Ribonuclease E/G (Paracraurococcus lichenis), 379 residues
Amino acid sequence: MTTILASASPGERRTVLVDDDGNLVELHIERPGRPDGVGDLHRARVSALAPAMAGAFLAMAGGETGFLPESAVGPARQPIGRSVSEGQMLAVRITRAAQGGKGPRLTARLTPEEATRIAAAPGTGPALIARGPDAATRLARAHLGAAIRTDSPSLAARLRIPLSHRPVLDDALEAELDLLAGPEVPLPGGGRLLVHPTPALTAIDVDAGSAAGTRDPQAQLRLNQAAVAEAARQIRLRNLAGPILLDLAGLTVKRREALAEPLRAALATDPLAQLRGLGPLGLFEILRQRIQPPLHEVLGWPPSPLTHGLAALRRAAREAAARPGRRWALRAHPAVLGALRDLPGALAEAEAALGTPLHLHPDPALAPAQSEIEEAAHG
């Protein structure tokens, strides 16, 4: 049975979709203190028309600026100036998270329920009316009948499901999630994928490893067949978006063409991905729609001080659950502690999980990935 596992830890929510065979299919990492905004309902003011960009800029609550394409308001192919005017207040929903210094993408095409909810909200200026659904809710809607397990009391209450009093992510899943934070993915039988995100595109390279020196053409083909399947899986797991280039290992262009259909089939279960073909340089070209931020933007690439800090808070919560009644301290690089202080709610959630204050000890000698959880001295 398809299963949704939603794990809560201080400052972070990790939600995974697991298929009938126990394989990880989707991963969503959310930081409630800094939501990506997708699905949020807003009342916003048109601040500037942008006919050359076929849209308009809208001033939103908190000083953020969103972009409304003309295709997301008014009749199809109607110029933006005929649909809205500067200064006009609009009811909108965020359809794509902000990226690369650009604000979120908006739509004014709302359901009757959404429009009514925004119209009934008090006030007249730009305002956030309601937050969008979290990952667990989105997955539950998309996979009706899926089993749902969570160790989050608030999510269990909202979804009206039993609360798991044990972590819902086992050691094997935790190890796989750790791999997703890095660029290397081992392939069965040897070799690896190397994932290289850039601001413009993502490159995925197949490293043949020990198979590079073999004279067996079938071994090389088997490696690339495995790489095609795993690349499609990694694209979805990492929520990669925009142009994606896949470079196979050691095959002529003609032999690569034979892998186009297996790649297309592997991508078929991902509703956001589309194989565009094999380019003149022998690279498979994939385009994947962006909605939520890719995993590497959430975690940082390499992982950010905040990512290391939240991992340390997870360890602290596990230590406290295993050895209750003790006081705990986190020793970490100053950048890690600063990032935790800057994330709303993270340290408060940690102290609630521990049942006691968490003592923070800055230690510049530690690398960001070397945070230590230790018992605090009583005094």
Q: What stands out?
A: The two ends are 51 Å apart (CA to CA). The CA atoms of residues 330 and 373 lie 5 Å apart.
